[in-house]
Amino acid sequence: MAGTNQLLRIPFDSLTLASVVHELQEFVGAKVQRISQPSDTEVVFELYVGSGVGHLLISCHPEFARAHLSTRKPGNPTSPPQLLTALRARIGISRVMGIRQVRFDRVLEIEFEGPDGEFLLVAELMGKHSNLMLLDSGRRVIGAAKWIGKSKSVRPIQAGQKYEPPPFEIKPSLLAASSADELKGREGASPFVLSLIGVDGLGKVQQAVLSGSYSPVLVAGSGAYPLDVSALGLAGVARKSISVALEQHYDQAIPAAKAESLRASLRTQIERVLLARDTAIKDLNQAVSAGQGAGKQQLFGELILAYGGSLAEGASLLEAHDYEGNPIQVKLNPELNFKENANRYFDKAKRAKARLGTVADQLDRLSKDREDILSFLVKLEAATRLREIEELHDEAKTHRWLNKPPPPKANKEDRPYEGHRVRELLGPGGYAVLYGENAESNDYLTMRVAKPNDWWLHIRGSTSAHVVIQTRNLPEKVQRETLMFAAKIAVQNSPSKHAGYVPVDYTLKKYVRKPKGAAKGTATYTHEKTLHVDS
What we know:
The chain is an alpha+beta fold. The chain has helices at about 15-25, 80-90, 190-200, 200-210, 240-290, 295-305, 340-380, 385-400, 440-450, 480-490, and strands at about 30-40, 40-50, 50-60, 65-70, 95-100, 105-115, 115-125, 130-135, 140-145, 215-220, 225, 235-240, 315-320, 325-330, 420-425, 430-435, 455-460, 465-470, 500-510, 510-515, 525, 530-535. A hairpin with a 2-residue loop joins strand 6 and strand 7.
């Protein structure tokens, strides 16, 4: 039927609270034995009456606000929150004098009386606006789960301030209405209540509330209901109390919601990492193509030298033949002489060749990582339990896929690192290895990006790129393989890249300083160790 879908994930509505309040009347006169606050939004009262002990759980969670008896004995945080301190100080030794619902709304009030006087606990169970407050006899706020400043609401909740109830609309409540039409848009008329009235009639629902003749049921995957819902096409299983039904429902609903929230968060982060890998692989494939074209750049340089003597001054094009006799055209910079033009092509060939080995290794590593990410996403979608998704979250942390920066964008102003030419590579062990492409970027990387316990590398006694291994504050975990990878990056981005055996110093960033007034890219360091790279 049309209204049935609206019942899914039913909120804790006024009719449900009314049935809870009816059930709690046996605890009027009960002695407060213990007060616990297992989370920021949950408080549990251990109440003793002649029939035994009950644990009353009240939650002001924005999604799972509720009140019901619980079968579990709660724990406590290491450091008691302000609300728990206030509750224990004022009503830790007291009795429950009254439990009521306010105006058939989602507001629960519990009166306590003890050696220090009378106090009122107000639980506003209204979704994201839910709160839990302790008031003194003058209805001034002593403690609250959520303090709300004047800038946040027209109804602030502040210590010592007079409590103002929520602004109730002047409309008939379920108990005062004479027809179902009067209830539309009114508190107490949730989709469940309106659907039930449509089947059983308003009078039958009103009579159940007035007489307290509830018949609580649990509908798996849907919710806990204070009245029979079989007429709505839902298969409810009878429970001995509304509290039992609510506890069993939320035992399933809360972990399921946490699982879905964690799944969505993980999916977003992992898909962002996948996009970064795809972007990096595309760039590396272009670099491979450039490296494979090094021979062509070398040929251009050799042809310029061979034909250079016959070139006119300021020529912008050389027309010649390659070694196989095929006609070929080589573009020239008219502002350079033929030797300078040739050297320009030779330099391009050297750079392409130098990068080719590192690029191929990086491409292989990123491609494998991409396959692992795709496999991970399949497992993530297949997981059904919170524990499974938590284990996948731990796996993602092990792979260092979480908290990765977003992939670079096309426009310089949209680049990461505030537009500075800082490149990021994926090193052995999954560590991010960063290096600057010029002096200004080196400065930015070392002074603004690197953390104190990141590894910092530089060629000893010569200029080179500043290289940083991001360690996530665990430098001792970084293996020698990763350090050697970063050292090779420093050598390949330095004038010493063809020098043979090159010493590279490494130290923690906290031992690196920039002398006052020094040129960009200048740094001094201590506590260094040295690696030797065969270039």
